[in-house]
């Protein structure tokens, strides 16, 4: 099953998730991870470790981060070499909506199309 994780510094990921669900309806496949918003979210590595431990191998994940070169993106980039997920930076609403409304499985090509269509 396709799963999308929105990850950001501060509450941007949560706001993008809420806005996407406002427009398209609730999605059981859309998740958010907001770093540095409180004591529990200051340890980014721990948050990502928990996500990696809980995700199911049969799911296909796309992680969309807010800022290329930022700590959130860099931590996911470090893990991309040893874990199986697609990673895109530059979170924006058109990209999220494009991915949520596409049919079929997430593939490298479908992710590239969503990125090029949202830019």
Distance between the termini: 25 Å
* Secondary structural class: alpha/beta
Number of strands: 4
For the sheet with most strands, the description reads: 4 strands, parallel
Rg, please? Answer: 13 Å
Total helix count?
5
Strand order of the largest sheet: 2-1-3-4
Shape: globular
- N-to-C SSE string, H for helix and E for strand: EHEHEHEHH
Helix content: 40-55%
Would you tell me the overall average pLDDT? 95
Proportion of strand residues: 15-25%
Low-confidence stretches: none
Which helices and strands appear, and what pairs or packs with what?
Elements: E1 2-9, H1 12-24, E2 30-35, H2 44-54, E3 60-65, H3 71-80, E4 86-89, H4 93-101, H5 108-118
Helix pairs in contact: 4-5
Could you provide a short overview of the structure?
Helix content is 45%, strand content 20%. It has 5 helices and 4 strands. The model has no long low-confidence stretch (mean pLDDT 95).
Q: How would you sum up this structure, described in words?
A:
- The chain has a 4-stranded parallel β-sheet with strand order 2-1-3-4, sandwiched between helices.
- It contains 5 helices and 4 strands.
- With 119 residues, it is an alpha/beta fold.
């Amino acid at each position: 099953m396709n799963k999308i994780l929105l990850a950001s510094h501060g509450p941007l990921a949560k706001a993008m998730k809420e806005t996407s669900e406002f427009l398209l309806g609730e999605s059981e496949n859309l998740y958010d991870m907001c770093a540095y918003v409180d004591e529990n979210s200051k340890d980014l590595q721990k948050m990502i470790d928990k996500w990696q431990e809980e995700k199911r191998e049969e799911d296909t994940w796309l992680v969309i981060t807010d800022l290329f070169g930022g700590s959130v993106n860099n931590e996911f980039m470090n893990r991309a070499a040893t874990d199986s997920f697609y990673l895109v930076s530059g979170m924006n609403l058109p990209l999220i909506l494009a991915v949520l409304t596409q049919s079929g499985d997430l593939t490298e090509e479908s992710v590239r199309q969503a990125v090029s269509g949202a830019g």
